[in-house]
Amino acid sequence: MNRKIESTDGKLAVKVLDQDRTTESGLLVRDTYADRFIRCEAVGVGEVYTNSKGYKRKPPCRNGDNIYIRKPSRKPDFRLDGDDYYSIPFIEVIAVES
C-alpha cells in the first residue's frame, strides 16, 4: 500500500531500514554500528525551518534518501504496514548516503 507521509517544518519522517546486509553469495553481514547508529530512509521531509531568532535550517536530504541517525532511546513514533518510523528534527541527521 502506497501512502504519502508529510512531515512538519524542521522535521523528517524516517523509515528504519534492515540493518543487516546479504552479499550476492548469500553471506549475512551484520552491521557492527547498529547499536549506535541506524540506517533509515527519509519518507517525509519538512520545509525550511525558521526559529524565533530568524535562523533558517534547510532540510539535509530529500525524500527517498538513505540517512544515518543515532539510534533513538525511545520506541518508534509510529508503525505502518509492519515498518517502524521516527519523526526527528533536521539536526539529528548524521550522514546522507549518495
What would you say this structure looks like, in words?
The chain is mainly β and about 100 residues long. The chain has one domain: 10 Kd Chaperonin, Protein Cpn10, Chain O, CATH 2.30.33. About 0% of the residues lie in helices and about 45% in strands. The protein contains no helices and ten strands. The protein has strands spanning about 10-15, 20, 30, 35-45, 50, 55, 65-70, 80, 85-90, 95. The strands form three sheets. Strands 8-9-1-4-7-10 form a six-stranded antiparallel sheet, with no helix packed on it. A two-stranded antiparallel sheet has the order 2-3. The protein has a two-stranded antiparallel ribbon with strand order 5-6. A hairpin with a 5-residue loop joins strand 2 and strand 3 (about 30). It is elongated. The chain starts with 10 loop residues before the first strand and ends with a strand.
Ranges where pLDDT stays below 50 over 5 or more residues in a row are none
Across the major sheet, the strand order is 8-9-1-4-7-10
Termini separation = 27 Å
What is the overall number of helices? 0
Number of domains: 1
Instruction: Kindly name the structural category.
Output: mainly beta
CATH class: Mainly Beta
Give the biggest sheet: 6 strands, antiparallel
Give the helix proportion (percent range): under 10%
Number of strands: 10
> What is the percentage of strand-forming residues?
35-45%
Q: And the CATH topology?
A: 10 Kd Chaperonin, Protein Cpn10, Chain O
H/E order of the elements? EEEEEEEEEE
